[in-house]
């Protein structure tokens, strides 16, 4: 069994992909608005080296971050990868010339998406690929049968070990599970945005990882009087409280906070280890999104 001294220990997806519950989301490594190269390439590479130095074994990425930029940085900084490292990617969108995020859910687009991730990252097989549908703020109501079936086909061909989903409702996740096993769900969730509470508990019962994106609020940093008050009481930052709250919320929650800064990365890893009391948790329950 893999052991970790990082807060929260480890979680195993699909029976054989064991990751530290404190992971790293690579989206912030690209340029402004996740478009183009970073302002400081060496700083971005330094963040990735520190991810490994800290013992993190889960990096979340996508070939459409930049586009291509974060995957190129990951390969430049970390290839050949440590055996313990698991890189999780997502497909289902691309970037247009204006920096938009249109869907790319046709079979040929999904196949190209997976193949591009593999090529750019220098891998033969992806450990986990998430099918992303919906918008940043929440799922839509469309059937995911065709695109998820395409990923299941790519899994059968050996390009993908395990499948996950992103920005999906409970109904869509059940539809996906009727096609192939789902090992993780990546949706918008944080201490101030708790729409997925019921879903998280149901996934925990099934041993499926829940990986919240925007754990710190994403493009709009978390702002809450209740969060600030608890942070002041426990002498920590609001970011630390937000991450620690997620780790304590459920054992199947994996953290992928994003940062372009080595200092913030270290702060986040240390902060996630904060132990919140029942009083702290009760006060945080009063946050409204
Ligand atoms: N499936 C999806 O559709 C989807 C959507 C969005 C994101 N994601 C994934 O989820 C990951 C996390 O989301 P995210 O990066 O958008 O949002 P996030 O983790 O909630 O927040 C990132 C923001 O917080 C700042 N930050 C991080 N640590 C900080 C600290 N200790 N102190 C102050 N500021 C701090 C970062 O700025 P600095 O760079 O200055 O630290 C950045 O602006 C992404 O990296 C990506 O891998 C997935």
Description of the molecule:
With 289 residues, this protein is α/β, with parallel strands linked by helices. Helices cover 37% and strands 14% of the residues. It has helices at 41-53, 69-78, 107-121, 145-156, 170-177, 197-205, 225-234, 238-249, 262-271, 278-284; strands at residues 10-13, 17-20, 24-25, 58-60, 86-91, 126-132, 160-166, 182-186, 209-210. Strands 3-4-5-6-7-8-9 form a seven-stranded parallel beta sheet, covered by helices on one side. The protein has a two-stranded antiparallel sheet with strand order 1-2. Helix 3 crosses helix 4 (145-156). The chain starts with 9 loop residues before the first strand and ends in a 5-residue tail after the last helix. The structure holds NADP nicotinamide-adenine-dinucleotide phosphate. Residues 25-28, 60, 90, 132, 136, 166-167, 186, 213-218, 221, 239, 256-261, 264, 267-268 line the site of NADP nicotinamide-adenine-dinucleotide phosphate.
Catalogue the ligands. Answer: NADP nicotinamide-adenine-dinucleotide phosphate
Shape: globular
Number of strands: 9
The secondary structure category is alpha/beta
* Tally of alpha and pi helices: 10
* Low-pLDDT runs: none
What is the terminal separation in angstroms?
Answer: 39 Å
**CA radius of gyration:** 18 Å
Strand order of the largest sheet: 3-4-5-6-7-8-9
Largest sheet: 7 strands, parallel
Q: How helical, in percent, are the residues?
A: 25-40%
The H/E string reads EEEHEHEHEHEHEHEHHHH
Strand proportion: 5-15%
User: Average pLDDT, to the nearest integer?
Assistant: 96
